[in-house]
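Subject: Sanity check before I submit

Could someone independently write out the structure tokens for this chain? I want to compare against mine line by line before I put it in a report. The sequence has 752 residues.
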Amino acid sequence: MTERKSRIALIGAGRWSRGWHIPQLVNNPKSELAALAGGRMVPELAKEHGIPGFKTVEELLADPVAKTLDGVIIATPHAVHYEDGMKCLEAGLNIFIEKPMTTDLPEAYKLTKTANAKGKIFMVNNTANWRKQAVQAQQMVERGDIGDIRHAMVMFATPLGFIFNDPTQEGWVKPTGNMLGNGFAWGQLAHTFGWLWMVSGLKPKAVFAYLGKSDKTEADVYDTASILCENGATVSVSGVGTIPGKSKLTQNRLFGLEGMLSYSGSYTIDEGDAHEEGKTSAPKTEGALKLERFDGADVVVPGFEFENIEQGGEGPESLKAFIDATLGLPHFKGTSADIGFYCVATIDAMYRSAKSGKCEPLLPAGFEESLRDSIPAQVPARRARIALVGAGRWSRGWHIPQLQNNPKSELVALACGRMVPELAKEFSIPGFMTIEELLADPVTQTLDGIIIASPHAVHFDIGMKCIEAGLNIFMEKPMTTDLPEALKLTKAANRKEKVFMVNNTANWRKQAHLAQQMVDRGDIGEIKHAMVMFATPLGFIFNDPTQEGWVKPSGNMLGNGFAWGQLAHTFGWLWMVSGLQPQEVFAYHGKGTKTDADVFDTASIKCTNGATVSVSACGIIPGKSKLCQNRLFGLEGMLSYSGSYEIDEGEAHEDGKKPGSKTEGELKLERFDGKDVVMPGFDFENIEQGGQGPESLKAFIDACLGEPHFKGTTADVGFLCVATIDAMYRSAKSGKAEPLLPEDQFEAWVAP
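---
Independent answer below. Compare away.
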């Protein structure tokens, strides 16, 4: 299948467009440069790239090509950002605009309000805000690693005297339009404020500033500001435009009630001839992201990246995120219209304060009232239109009420199940007795996604039909209990490149996400061994012969019991967090005393990288708590996620009336260099009823809306769960180690 490309128009044909945006859009396999507009070189460039060119934005928007666009990049001079941006917003286009979004406060305000009202993608190209460390820093703040932020200190110093001391650099040193001044604040502090307001989540309220001028121009080059935020936090700002050498220096520090987060470093970058000609390469950098906590649970992430103005390749992280966003793919939001506005407003307030000699509010008195009539009404947020397949207990007790409760989702159809007519009538939505009837109905063309909560035996048939219909899919776990079916489903899902999530709820929990990040950034080094243990008080299920769905195999299953019923949770977590790939499995299965279900399981697994895994599983223990121990052993340390959670899988669970369970445990990183981290709290499964649904369902809804989300259990991870469990049953039967996929005959099983 040919991957659809995002069709992007570029407005502006200056140096930045020619040296960066055009070649990067051409190089990126996900994007297509579809049109050019605005600039004297447009005719020549349009001819070179075989695309339509337009002298003005109005001509572009009036042409039929505008209806085919996924987004537009605005790389025109700042003075026309507002006019170009408003016209593109009115045309319903997604926008990627160079920073600052504008240098006029009323224009920035109206752009932001209009972007939010239209509900379109609007990104301001502060490249630093999409860097890996910026994302990590924001996540640390959001999860409360430093607690409530009470103070911030930001310093940015650059060797740009050749710009700010040069009177001929009028765009950098002389104000235009409504600007009260120009220099380092507009030219460089937009980087710093973009990072500060995005990462910290603080909102500026009032600003006092002194701006020291260059001795050769009127540009500000020695800037200081004190900022008061809405929550009472304070910010110290230091900005210098003229320092020796070729390195830009950055110090960003956030001080909270539980610790301190610092992102400090330097990067060498040529803003002279090489920069002008678009020949810059990756800068030399040094620095680190550092979390220091009062409890000693410190974290150091080596490496420093701030601006990204490298030429060539597929573009900076910011441009890649915009392309993904226009395709409805997961992406990091970075500098939204709101963050872009805070940057403009803060800098504008600095110039106002430097002129008045007083503390200035972020917005002048009467500002919003004077502009109210020029702001369009807010467009209601679009809701993800979801169909539900299956009308059993889980659908009735969980999915239906949660979809109804979530303000970002809308339940629009039901299919499959004897209770469909009754439920469809109750919720005033169309109901269908079969999946074929649903997919043949026009309502399918309006769907953003579908939840498959039917019996496992029909997951494959329903899933394949939904994949072929081009639907995003959220499927209950396990994706199937038939290995060939699981492989076919996975291959089909990957070919279609739609969202496919398997509902291992544990994989979307905060701690699972944090654990995966620790592994991804190399905190424990290469993983050489893992140990997983899962023990549950479910004797009333596995020792009950009447629980046939839990204790008797069906279809091509070689057995049934604890492995299929519970180890899908464990393997889902293991393969997602570790990134390991199982290769060979040996297992023994101890049976229940009253059924043939396996309830006492052990397995040894060899992975493709040579790592080994020890598996311990017990379905019958005293009490009401499930016990979990997941440990990953690497060359640089050990990661453990161990704990217990009390949960009633009896009548209360059956009726969907069980509230949140009592839990205890922690996520713990232990390193050979002593840089340990302990994060209290333990969450594994999430089967709480009510509310807006578990993290997994919320992520699926976000994915359907094209919003950032955590992937959790993808089709690939879901398949590894099925294949591992299937190999355990094969090994228990053969008495030998079994490959993940049976040899010889397997390709015949899955051949088209």
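---
OP: Matches mine. For the report I'm noting this point. Residues 452 and 548 are 22 Å apart (CA to CA).
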